[in-house]
Amino acid sequence: MRDHPRKRYPQGIDPPRHGQPVEQAPEVWTGRATNRIQWLLAIAGAACLALGIELAVVSNWTSGIVPLVMSVVGCVAAGLLMLYGTLAFVHVAVTVDGDAVEVRCGHIGVPRRRIPLSHVVDAEFEPKVNPRQWGGWGYRWRPEKGTAVVVRRGEGVVVTLGDGRTFTVTVDDAEAAVRAIRDRLGTASGVSTGT
Questions:
Q1: What is the rounded (10 degree) CA torsion for 174, 176, 182, 183?
Q2: How many CA atoms lie within 13 A of 7 on its CB side?
Q3: What pLDDT shows up at residue 1?
Q4: Percentage of the chain with pLDDT > 70?
C-alpha cells in the first residue's frame, strides 16, 4: 500500500474534519477597523483651527502683533495637526491579495504600507493589541517591538518580515487575515505541502 503525503496546515489552523467542505481562501481578503472615539479629537482640532481663524479676523490688536501672530499660528497649527492626526487614523483598511499585504489609513489612504508577500515569513493572530503598548494611536514604531498601525484596542495581525522585523495592524476578523496570509505563503513561498 502506498503512503500518500498529508497536507500540512500552519500552526493555529486546524485541518478540516472528514465530511466538512474545505474552505477556500478568497482571491482578495479585505478587512478594516474603526475608532469612532477619534472623531471627538477631530472636533477638538476643528475648534482650535476655528479659534485661530477667529483670532486673526476679529482681534482688535490691542496686545501687539507678536502675541497675536503667535496665538493665531499656534491655534491653526495645533488644529491642523489634530485634524490630520485623527482623521488619518479613524480607520484602517487591510487588503491581502496574491502579491502583497497592503495597509491604508484614513479616508484618503495615507499613510499607506505595501508589504510584498516575498518579504513575509509568517503571520500571527494577536488577540489584544493595546494603544498603550505602542504609545498611542496611529502609525507607531518601537525598536523592541517593530512597526504598527493602531486605530483601536482589540485583535490584530502581526506580520513577521524576512529581516526579523514585525508589522502589527489592528483589524477586525484578524484570524481570517492570518489564514489568508498563511494560505498565500504556502503557495507563493514554495513551502512544501507534503510530509
A1: -160
A2: 10
A3: 41
A4: 82
Which of 195, 191, 172 minimizes the C-alpha distance to 182?
Answer: 191
The grid cell for 142 is: 518601537
| 8 Å CB contact between 159 and 123 | yes
Task: Please compute Rg for the chain using Cα positions.
Answer: 23
The pTM score is 0.67
pLDDT tens string 150-173: 999 999 999 999 888 999 999 999
Q: Are 53 and 80 in contact (CB under 8 A)?
A: no
State the average pLDDT over residues 20-38: 74
Task: Identify the DSSP state of 32.
Answer: E
Q: What is the pLDDT of residues 97-137, one digit of tens each?
A: 989 999 998 877 888 999 999 999 999 999 999 999 998 88
Report the DSSP beta bridge partners of residue 168.
148, 158
* Cα–Cα separations (whole angstroms), residue 141 to 65, 90, 135, 149, 160: 40, 18, 9, 9, 15
List b or e across 160-179, with b for residues whose CB sees 16 or more CB atoms inside 10 angstroms: bbeeeebbbbbbbbbebbbb
Candidates 173, 177, 26, 188; CA nearest to 119 is 188
Burial class for 10, CB neighbours closer than 10 Å (0-12, 13-18, 19+): middle
The angle that helices 38-58 and 65-87 make with each other, rounded to 10 degrees, is 160
